[in-house]
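Q: I'm writing a short explainer about Alpha-L-glutamate ligase-related protein ATP-grasp domain-containing protein for a general audience and would like to include a description of its predicted shape. Could you first generate the structure from this sequence?
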Amino acid sequence: MIGSTTSCVRIIVAMTKEGPKIHMAFWKMARAHNITDNFCMGESGNLLAWVNKNTGSIERIVSGLWPNGTEVPRHPDTQQELLGKNLPDWQQATSMCLSAAVHFPGLKLQHWDIAFCRQGPVLMELNTEADLGVPQFLGRTPFLDATIKELLVNT
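A: Of course. Here's the predicted structure. Afterward I'll give you a sentence or two in plain language.
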């Protein structure tokens, strides 16, 4: 869908009393001229896409953040229409994150990067800190909800 670049979906996992829970997800889409999917607030030319955490459906794509970012319906390198598409193996990817998350119970917020490869999803890395403004802008939803409030109270 986006060419031969390696790009990861960031899945944010909250470690609740009931166990790990997917909180938010977004796709960091690399462009053909970049070797990483780093967004750098849009300066890299890479894109971000909001991903429905339950279905893996792409719901919004931006080329940058406010005030200069614009929404784009397709990938500029491949011209592939991406809005409404579902990421392959989404349930496998989220299950993988939730299974891995239990091995780090002290990290109440986990930011997993997953690459979607021909062989299936691959866990690339676990980030312990991240810019929380990016998913809020992209998803048009506050990061702080009942789940995160509970984490703050019980930490």
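A: For your explainer, you could say: The chain has one domain: 8-153.
Q: Perfect, that's easy to follow.
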